[in-house]
Design brief:
Elements (H helix, E strand, L loop, with lengths): L2 H14 L1 E2 L35 E2 L8 H21 L14 E5 L4 H12 L5 E4 L18 E4 L2 E4 L1 H12 L8 H12 L5 H5 L3 H14 L4 H25 L5 H16 L12 H10 L6 H9 L2 H12 L8
Parallel strand pairs: 3-4
Antiparallel strand pairs: 1-2, 3-5, 5-6
């Protein structure tokens, strides 16, 4: 669904006076499938959430003050949808690469960071899912981690460098990253990503939840899937405890909630850190969190912090995936 369709949906809410959906899992405007993995920098996974059911908001003959407030809230929410839907920033057609291939793990937060950038800018890209055991898909490269993005034959590596280089290509007239944006881009790589593994592999059941998705959606043989799900979950459960100690995390959920609240505080009342439109920091935070959003850790995060509204605006602004068949 592109920019026009998102705009139409948002405007239809204005016309029909729809109330906003519940805040937690149903806060997703569209069904999403997301996860996390390991030699891209961290490892974890996903689940899905059904599309929310919007409820018709009908006015009584003599509306009370509470109803008036509710209507104002519905209109405000609808206007937010319009703003988010119009935030899309596709580059000029002549600047869009002709051939873009992403070598990834579906569950990798760094790969999802790159995908969030490409999706937001409507850049078509193909995906090659890398087998994390053999890595045969990237034997041609001296770089043995993901993501690797090949743009018209040129290999780009490291998610932050990939995004910065593409941003300079798409916005040559506005390629300078301001101090605030730089600060939060660094925070994503130095802090936020380290909160993920201790949370998604916090318990054996959460570890199995993550690796069930990885096993089903990763590039594995039938035999490898069973091994990856159970052995991988057991290994990452133990690894998560070491990571917890390494990064001085006492309570992993509290640390995740604090990170989410730190981000929403930085927004300071703005729809996005970039103001009316997402900037690179918005896209980086969204991309990194997208793999965990519908896992137990992600659901808990949304239910216990104020990040859900921003995340929903980002889902609308980024829109549908621009991935194409390989």
């Amino acid at each position: 669904m592109g920019r026009v369709a998102h705009g139409l949906i948002a405007r239809s809410l204005l016309r029909r006076n729809l109330a906003p959906p519940p805040f937690s899992c149903a806060a997703a405007v569209a069904q999403r499938t997301v996860p996390i993995a390991s030699s891209c920098g961290t490892a974890s996974d996903v689940a899905t959430c059904p599309r929310p059911r919007w409820r018709l908001f009908s006015l009584p003959v003599a509306p009370s003050r509470s109803v008036s407030v509710g209507l104002a809230g519905a209109l405000s929410f609808s206007l937010t949808l319009v703003t988010a839907a119009e935030a899309k920033e596709p580059p000029s057609p002549e600047l869009i690469p002709k051939d873009v291939v992403l070598y990834q793990y579906e569950a990798c937060p760094f790969c999802n960071k790159v995908k969030a950038f490409l999706d937001y800018h409507d850049v078509p890209y193909k995906v090659v899912e890398v087998n994390p055991l053999s890595k045969k898909e990237i034997k041609w490269s001296d770089y043995k981690k993901v993501p690797i993005l090949v743009v018209d034959g040129e290999q780009l590596i490291e998610s932050s460098d990939i995004v910065k280089k593409l941003s300079q290509r798409f916005r040559p007239e506005n390629s300078v990253i301001d101090e605030e944006e730089t600060k939060w881009l660094r925070w994503v790589d130095d802090h936020l990503v380290h909160m993920l593994s201790p949370n998604i592999y916090r318990t054996t059941s959460e570890a199995l939840e993550s690796f069930d998705y990885i096993a089903k959606h990763g590039n594995f043989s039938m035999t490898e899937r069973f091994t990856v799900k159970y052995a991988g979950a057991a290994i990452m459960y133990m690894v998560s405890k070491k990571l917890k100690k390494k990064y001085n995390i006492t309570d992993e959920r509290v640390a995740l909630y604090e990170a989410a609240q730190t981000w929403t505080t930085a927004l300071d009342g703005r729809d996005f850190l970039g103001g009316a439109k997402p900037n690179l920091a918005d896209l980086a935070v969204y991309g990194v969190l997208r793999p965990i959003r519908y896992l137990k850790a992600g659901k808990d995060m949304v239910e216990n912090t104020e990040i859900g509204e921003w995340y929903q605006r980002m889902e609308i602004a980024v829109g549908e995936s621009s991935r194409i068949a390989a």
